[in-house]
Amino acid sequence: MASRKGSLKQKTERFDTNINKRGNVHKSSKKEKPFTVGPVVLAFFLFVVVGSSLLQIIRQAQSGSMMG
Residue 17, Cα to own-chain centre: how many angstroms? Predict the structure, then answer.
């Protein structure tokens, strides 16, 4: 029974010393990427989205319909 109390006391002391360290992560351990999407891919995506919306507007203007 005495060994249980000793091991419980050791676990409690370890927990008490660790409780103040939680959540303190050094920024150097985190690797940050400046761009997740390359500029070429972003430009292509914008070209497709803007181009398709312009084509849709031109088609609607030629057909004369106001609703989709």
Answer: 32
Buried (b) or exposed (e) across 19-29, using 16+ Cβ within 10 A? eeeeeeeeeee
- 30: which DSSP letter? S
Chain segment 13-37, per-residue pLDDT in tens: 887 777 766 666 666 656 777 778 8
Distance, in Å, from the CA atom of 38 to the CA atom of 49, rounded to the nearest integer, reads: 17
CA distance 32 to 12: 36
Long-range contacts of 47-52 (CB under 8 A, 24+ apart): none
Given phi > 0 = left and psi -120 to 50 = alpha, else beta, which region is 32?
beta
